[in-house]
C-alpha cells in the first residue's frame, strides 16, 4: 500500500470510510512524521498531539457506531498560525502574541471541528503574514522540503512545506497578496485564494481586511475543492461574508476535465521581463498542452496590472497600520514597561510595540501610517484606491473576452535564504502576479506545472476566474492537473 502520508486527503477519506484505516492510525502516522522530520523544516510552531488524537478516536468511535460523518472526518489538517483555535497557542509568528491562547474559535476552525478533522497543530508564517519567504517569522524560517537551502514561499511557508513534505494531508492558509498561492507554487502544492467573502474571515487575525482571504493548501485540486466546500458559506460574524449558499465545487470538478471550447487568456503583463527562464519555459509548455487539449488560447491585455504592486504597497500597509493598532501592550499580548521613567499608556505602548514587532511589521505600519496622514492621503492612499478600481476594470474587460486568465504564479522558483532579504523590492516583486486577484477580490489558485528546467524546482501556474466563479476556476485547474505530470517532492518519499 502507498504510504499513508503520500495518499491524497480524499484517498485517506475513502480508506477511513471503507474501514481500511482508522483515524487514530492516520493521525498518529502524521504526528510521528512531524516529530521525526520537522526538525529539518520548522513547518510547525505548535503540535497538538493530545487534541488531534482525541478527535481521531472520537471519530473512529462514531464511525464504528454507524454514524453518518462528513466526508473528510478523521483526515488530519494543519492550520496557519494566524487562525485562532480556542485554547491553542496562536502567535502569528510574532513575539507580540507569544503565549497567547485565544478564547474562541475562528469560523473555519469551528467548521473543521464540527466535521471531525483532527487538528495537528499550527504552521509557521512570516510575522503577521507579512513576507514572501517565511524568513520574517520570529521563530525561525521554514525550509523548503525540495531543497532546504531555499525558502518555502510566504507568508504561508509552513502550511505549504507541511503539505509538500507529507507532514499533513491538508492545511489552511491566508492570502492577502499571494500568501497561499506563491508558497504553493514554490513547493509544488495546490494553493487557493477563493473569491473574497466566500470564506468567513472571523477569527483570522487581520492583516489587510479588504484583501485577506482564507483558503486551502493541498496536493490535489480535488482535495482543495473538498476543503473549500467544507469551510465556505455565509457567516453573520463576518460583515463581508457572501450571502447565500456556496457552489458545490466537488460536484463541479466531478464533471470531468474537459477543455473543449474553453477560452483561456494569457495575461500579457504577467510574464517576460523579470521572470525566470525556467519558469517561463514550463508555463509556455503547459499553455501548448492546454491548446492541444481543445482550449482556445489568446493573449489578454491588463495594462493597469503594471501599477498593482505599487497600489498594494499603499493599500495593504494602510490597513495594516490600522489593524495592528490593537497590539498596544494593554489588552493582550506582550506588555513591556519602559526601563525608566513614568509608566504611562503611551510609553507602555511604545515599549511593547518596539519590542514585540519585527522589522518588516514596523516598516509596514510606518508606511501605512504615513500613507494615511493628512496632506498625503489623496496622493498616496487615494491614488492607490483609484488604481485598484482600474485593475478591477481590466479584469471585467478581460473576462468579457475569455473564461479564465492564466499566468505563472510567481516570477521565480524558490530562492535561497537571504537572497532577497536585503533587497525589499525584489522580495515584493515575487508577488507581482498574485496581487491583482486580491485587489479585485476574484478567485485565483496555483496548480503545479512541473519543474523549472534551470534549477529543477517546482513551478506553479495561476488560474484566475471572475468573482463568484470559483467552480469554473477549479474545473480548469483540474484539467491542467490532468495534463501535467505532478512533481513529487522527494521528502514525500522519505519514511
Ligand atoms: N499575506 C500575504 O499575502 C503576503 C504578501 N506576500 C505580503 O508580503 O504582503
UniProtKB/TrEMBL annotation:
The keyword Cytoplasm does not apply. The lineage of its organism: Bacteria, Bacillati, Actinomycetota, Actinomycetes, Actinomycetales. Coiled coil: none annotated. GO terms for molecular function: ATP binding; glutaminyl-tRNA synthase (glutamine-hydrolyzing) activity; transferase activity. It catalyses: L-glutamyl-tRNA(Gln) + L-glutamine + ATP + H2O = L-glutaminyl-tRNA(Gln) + L-glutamate + ADP + phosphate + H(+). HAMAP family: GatA. Heterotrimer of A, B and C subunits. This is Glutamyl-tRNA(Gln) amidotransferase subunit A. One of its GO terms (biological process) is translation. Belongs to the amidase family. GatA subfamily. Its EC number is 6.3.5.7. PANTHER family: GLUTAMYL-TRNA(GLN) AMIDOTRANSFERASE SUBUNIT A (PTHR11895:SF151), TRANSAMIDASE (PTHR11895). Keywords: ATP-binding, Ligase, Nucleotide-binding, Protein biosynthesis, Transferase.
Amino acid at each position: 500500500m502507498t504510504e499513508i502520508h503520500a495518499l491524497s486527503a480524499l484517498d485517506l477519506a475513502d480508506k477511513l470510510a471503507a474501514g481500511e484505516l482508522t483515524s487514530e492510525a492516520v493521525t498518529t502516522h502524521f504526528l510521528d512524521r512531524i516529530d521525526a522530520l520537522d526538525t529539518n523544516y520548522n513547518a510547525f510552531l505548535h503540535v497538538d498531539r493530545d487534541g488531534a488524537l482525541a478527535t481521531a478516536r472520537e471519530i473512529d468511535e462514531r464511525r464504528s457506531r454507524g454514524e453518518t460523518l462528513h466526508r473528510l472526518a478523521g483526515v488530519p489538517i494543519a492550520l496557519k498560525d494566524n487562525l485562532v483555535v480556542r485554547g491553542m497557542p496562536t502567535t502569528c509568528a510574532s513575539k507580540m502574541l507569544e503565549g497567547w491562547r485565544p478564547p474562541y474559535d475562528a469560523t473555519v476552525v469551528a467548521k473543521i471541528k464540527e466535521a471531525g478533522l483532527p487538528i495537528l497543530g499550527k504552521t509557521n508564517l512570516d510575522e503577521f503574514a507579512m513576507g514572501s519567504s517565511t524568513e520574517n517569522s520570529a521563530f525561525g524560517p521554514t525550509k523548503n522540503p525540495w531543497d532546504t537551502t531555499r525558502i518555502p514561499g510566504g507568508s504561508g511557508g509552513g502550511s505549504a512545506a507541511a503539505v509538500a513534505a507529507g507532514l499533513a494531508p491538508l492545511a489552511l492558509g491566508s492570502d492577502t497578496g499571494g500568501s497561499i498561492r506563491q508558497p504553493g507554487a514554490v513547493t509544488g502544492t495546490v494553493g487557493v485564494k477563493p473569491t473574497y467573502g466566500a470564506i468567513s474571515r472571523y477569527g483570522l487575525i487581520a492583516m489587510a481586511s479588504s484583501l485577506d482571504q482564507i483558503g486551502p493548501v493541498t496536493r490535489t485540486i480535488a482535495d482543495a475543492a473538498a476543503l473549500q466546500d467544507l469551510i465556505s458559506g455565509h457567516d453573520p460574524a463576518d460583515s463581508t461574508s457572501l450571502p447565500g449558499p456556496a457552489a458545490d465545487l466537488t460536484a463541479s470538478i466531478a464533471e470531468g476535465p474537459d477543455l473543449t471550447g474553453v477560452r483561456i487568456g494569457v495575461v500579457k503583463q504577467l510574464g517576460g521581463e523579470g521572470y525566470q527562464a525556467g519558469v517561463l519555459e514550463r508555463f509556455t509548455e503547459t499553455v501548448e498542452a492546454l491548446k492541444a487539449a481543445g482550449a482556445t488560447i489568446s493573449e489578454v491585455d491588463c495594462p493597469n496590472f503594471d501599477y498593482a504592486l505599487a497600489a498594494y504597497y499603499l493599500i495593504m500597509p494602510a490597513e495594516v497600520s490600522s489593524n495592528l493598532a490593537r497590539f498596544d501592550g494593554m489588552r493582550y499580548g506582550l506588555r513591556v514597561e519602559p526601563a525608566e521613567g513614568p509608566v504611562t499608556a503611551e510609553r507602555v505602548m511604545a515599549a511593547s510595540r518596539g519590542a514585540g514587532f519585527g522589522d518588516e511589521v514596523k516598516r509596514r505600519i510606518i508606511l501605512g501610517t504615513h500613507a494615511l496622514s493628512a496632506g498625503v492621503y489623496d496622493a498616496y492612499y487615494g491614488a492607490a484606491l483609484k488604481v485598484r478600481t482600474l485593475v478591477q476594470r481590466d479584469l471585467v474587460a478581460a473576462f468579457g473576452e475569455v473564461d479564465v486568465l492564466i499566468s505563472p504564479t510567481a516570477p521565480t522558483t524558490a530562492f535561497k535564504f537571504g537572497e532577497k532579504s536585503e533587497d525589499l523590492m525584489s522580495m515584493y516583486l515575487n508577488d507581482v502576479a498574485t496581487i491583482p486577484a486580491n485587489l479585485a477580490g476574484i478567485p485565483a489558485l496555483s496548480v503545479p506545472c512541473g519543474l523549472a528546467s534551470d534549477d529543477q524546482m517546482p513551478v506553479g501556474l495561476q488560474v484566475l476566474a471572475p468573482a463568484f466563479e470559483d467552480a469554473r476556476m477549479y474545473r480548469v485547474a483540474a484539467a491542467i492537473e490532468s495534463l501535467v505530470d505532478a512533481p513529487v517532492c522527494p521528502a514525500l518519499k522519505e519514511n
